[in-house]
Every structure is written in C-alpha cells, then in structure tokens.
Amino acid sequence: MSDTAHGSPSAPETSFPLLSTIDDPDDLRLLPASDLKQLAAELRGFLIESVSRTGGHLAAGLGVVELSIGLHYVFDTPHDRVVWDVGHQAYPHKILTGRRERMARMRMQGGLSGFPKRAESPYDTFGVGHSSTSISAALGMAIAAKQKGEQRQIIAVIGDGALSAGMAFEALNHGGPLDPDLLIILNDNEMSISPPVGAISSHLARLLSGGLYTKMREGSKTALRGMPQLRELVGRWEEHVKGMVMPSTLFEELGFNYIGPVDGHDMDAVVATLRNMKKMPGPRLLHLITQKGHGYEPAEHAPTAYHGVTPFDLKTGAVPKKGGAQSYTQIFGDWLCERAEADSRLLAITPAMREGSGMVPFSERFPGRYFDVGIAEQHAVTLAAGMACEAMKPVVAIYSTFLQRGYDQLVHDVCLQGLDVTFAVDRAGLVGADGPTHAGAFDYSYTRPLPHIVIMAPADEHECWWMLETAYAYDGPAMVRYPRGSGPGVVVDKTGGALLPIGKGEIRREGQDVALLAFGSRVAAAEAVGERLNATVVNMRFVKPLDDLLILQMAERHQLLVTVEENAVAGGAGSAVSELLAEQGVLVRCLHLGLPDRCQEQASHVQQLAACGLDDAGIEEAVRAEMRDLGLEQTRLKGASAG
C-alpha cells in the first residue's frame, strides 16, 4: 500500500503464469479450451490485485471475466467488433488486449483510461463512459459493414441496468426489423443463480443456439408458410416451451432471436454458446446471468461499495475511510433530509445515482418520497416537471455530465414552462480520474441560454447550503452546481445565514487595477491570487442572472477584468460578462480563464487544474502576462513575481 502513497503503484507481484503469456487475443486463441478456467482464475486474481493498488472500477469487471475471455477466444477481434456499454466492466478486456502491464497506471495522468477509448487501442471499438449507447453504436457498425460488403461479427455487451434506458430500447426497436448480423449480450447481474437452474438453462441455451434447432426453426417457417393455422399453433408451442425457462419473449417480439439465460461464470457454457451463436445469422440476444464482484468475497457481499474504489487492502478488502472536510455531496444529502422534514411537498429524484449523490439517508428516512428512476435522465427531468405541475416541490439530484442527457426535457418541459424544479448538480467541473466522459465541463454553457432558470455556484460549503435553500425557495427552475469532493473547509452555519438575494454577488477583497470575477469552485484560488497581486476579488455567486450593476462598477474602477470558472470558456460565465459589457457599450480589457477547448484527460484534479491554468499559479501567471501587456505599474504588486 505504501507505494501508492509515494508514487506510481508497482505492477502486481503475484505470479500469473498463464496470463503472462497472453499479450493479445491471438495468444489467447492458441490456448486449448481446457486452459480457459485457469486463465479466468488468474485474470480475476490479477484484476483484484491491480485495482487494490490503483483504485478504480472493480465489481463490474469481476462479473465479466469469463465473458471477456470467451469473446476474445471465439471471435476474431479486433476485426470482429466488441462494443462495451458504459465501460466500467472493461478492465479484463483491457488486460487481455495488450495492456496488462499498463494497468499499474490505471486512471492516472498519462496512463490508461478507466473506460474503452478508441485512441488507446484498436480493440476499443467505441469510446464509452455514459450508459446505454452500445446497441445503437453496434447497430451502426453492423449497417456499415453490410453497406461495405464486409464480413465481420458485431457484438454489443450491455448490462441490465443500462438496458433500462430508453435509448437502448430505441435501438432494439429499430434494429430488429433491419435484420442485421448483430449479437447483443445482456449481462444480467441482478438475478441470483441456483445450480440446478444454471445447469438446465445452460444446457437449453446450447440446444437453442445449435445448428439443429436453427435449421428446424427456419425449416418450419418455410414449410408452414402456406399453412397459417398450423404455423400459428407451432409458433405458440415454441413460445410456450421457451417461456417456461426464459424471462419473457420481449426480445423475440422485437425481432431478436433470444438465447438464455446462461450461467455467465460457467466458462465451458459461455464458450460453447458463443461459438454456436457466432454461426447464427441475423439479430440475436444472449442473456447471461452473472454476479457483480464474483470471485472476491468482499465485493460479492457489497457490490455497490466495490463498484468504484480507492486503493484497498488486498487480503481484507478494507477500504481506507475518507477523512477531511465534509464534501459538497454530503452537504446536499444533509440539506435534503432537513428540508424534507420541514416541507412535506419535497420529492427527491435520482437517475440511478443514490450513493453518488448523497441520497442514501433520504431514501431510508423518506422512502415514499424517494424516486430512483434508473438510468433514465430524460424521464427524471420530465417526471419532476409533472410533479411541479401539481404543486409539489421536486428536487432532482444529478451529475452535470448526466444532465446533458436530459437537456431537451430541461429546455422544453421545465424551463419553457417556468416550473418550480430544483436541480442539485453534482460533479460540476473537472472530476479527476474519471476523465473527460464524466467531467461537468459544459453546464454553465448549456443552461445559461434557457429562460426562467436561476444558476448558482457556491464558493464554499456554507454557501452551498444557503444556495440550496435559495434555489428551493425560488418559484421556478433553479440550479445549484457544485464540484466533486470538498471545498475550502468552511463550516456550514445553518442558523447564521439567510436566503441569498437573487443575482447578487459579493466583493471579497478590494484592490487596484485588476478585478477577478470568480465563479463557484475557483473563488478560493482567485482570493489567493488577489492577495499576491493586490487585485479586487468578487465572488459572483450567480451565473444567471448576473450581478450586472456590480460588473459595471468593476469595469469602471479597473483596467482589467478577469473571469475565472471551472467550465468551458465557450459560452460560459465569462462569455456572459462580455455580452453584458458589449450590450452596455463598455470598453474594458477582459481575460476569460476557464476550461480550454479540448478534452481534459484523466489525472488527479490538482493535475487537471494545473494543465488548464486554473490553479493558483496558472491564474497568477495569466493575469501577470495580461498586466504586462497593459503596461500596469509593477510597483503596485505585492510579493515576488511568480517564478
């Protein structure tokens, strides 16, 4: 564990003799099938040991070890395309496709992405991170292959949770009638498996996926084409037999040949079924039953806790407890419970992010007022709109990056109607190891143009609490966006605060020549720079409505206005300031500091801020350069020059 604390974690030390011979799937396909069970055991052990050192997503990967081996053993990857949904489960896939030694730098700066990424490997056929995209992407690949006359297998791997999203069903609904050569693998890790059921269903799946059954099925269709009454009878018999052991015939109705369920941890059954299904033409769906966290007892007992972990003790599974200041997520969770206690109209909604959004206490205390809608962000937003129409007070807890998925509903169903919905937007700004797919880089930009909405960003923990109070009290759509983790460490005073006046900022420090207009998470850094440069520092608090009067006063009294935000510069808070100045005909030098026009790759949050020039040093360097260009008196500056 000490190596993690003092530098890059070293590679796992335990011997994995069979796995060490696998540098790519070509090596894997040279193994006799009898060796695959040993390989699965070694791959699972390597995965546990790797993630215990680096942290990352563990439980989902443990559940698909056999499937990952089976896919690369049976199919000719990367010629055959495998598309993983979300990608939390893709670590075994990465290990088998030439990235075993690089696992020591998983999710670190310059290391492996925590998700499949096209630029990282030809085996990563589609970049993912958000849920429920795999079937659409794989269908697109299958259509493209058909158009080009290419013979290749296309496989989408999707979990039962991701299948709850509307986009997955849109793709299924579209794909079936097209009759594409597409295999969908449903990784169902919610259903328990008893040995008898697993054995019977695996045996049946092999029969149903075999050539004899397929020929009989297609032959019967041909023979009975002119005998509609008999054809209907045989069809009902077939569905009755399959229905005795299958969850439903939904996928058959959508045009997919359904096979399963199969025990996803039975290596022989997985390989045999994949081999049979590889020979089957058209759209087909394989239903695998797996266990999240399989093969590591702590993760089996607590799969949610081991979904994403920090480095942990390999032998005991103990994860070090996080110390330090209260996080913004915890502040929201506390506020939600207290506000619900005082107001029975409050209803809370989350799109499958109860733990991540700090809603566990609320769900336990107010189960009848808690609504987890699954991975369905669009539905979450419009559900809240419907509640608001009936004089309830819905609160939607959602990550910034996931609110993007419900954008039309935010525009059309909430903002255009001016409905009273409070949005608690977590993970706003850069998010460290989760990288660009989960960064909340755009929410200022995409919410700022919307009518009626109030957008707030707290400078510290105390302000977060009172912004939530202000948003809830506001009779219309309101959004409080806050970053991952904790802030400056300001203690929340629940009695020593008040609702904030809408659209009013505050001057944190008076200075000369330069005014730093800081939004949300970058206020503390701006204050530190302001001290060194003797600059005025303003905590803007509101992105919409802006404090127009305060901005115009700053423009009148200073030669340089610097906006600082942890959002894309394009269309962000700084853009709003420039729009105001242009509208008022005010000419003053402006410098906008924010996230640059590129994807910020995974690294620690501190490293990411430095790379964007948004840490103290980067802000100071940029401001000093602008001051030099303006010819401002250096004698007015306090402290030594940066560097």
Automatic annotation (TrEMBL):
Q: Which cofactor does it need?
A: thiamine diphosphate; Mg(2+)
Question: What do the Gene Ontology cellular component annotations say?
Answer: cytosol
Sorted alphabetically, which keywords does the UniProt record give? Isoprene biosynthesis, Magnesium, Metal-binding, Thiamine biosynthesis, Thiamine pyrophosphate, Transferase
A single GO BP annotation from the record? isopentenyl diphosphate biosynthetic process, methylerythritol 4-phosphate pathway
Protein biosynthesis is among the record's keywords:
no
> Which amino acids does the record list as binding thiamine diphosphate?
88, 129-131, 161-162, 189, 296, 377
Instruction: Look up the domain of life of the source.
Output: Bacteria
Q: What class of enzyme is it?
A: transferase
Q: Which GO terms describe its molecular function?
A: 1-deoxy-D-xylulose-5-phosphate synthase activity; magnesium ion binding; thiamine pyrophosphate binding
Assembly and oligomerization: Homodimer.
**Recorded family membership:** Belongs to the transketolase family. DXPS subfamily.
Protein name as it appears in the record: 1-deoxy-D-xylulose-5-phosphate synthase
Q: Which organism is it from?
A: Lamprobacter modestohalophilus
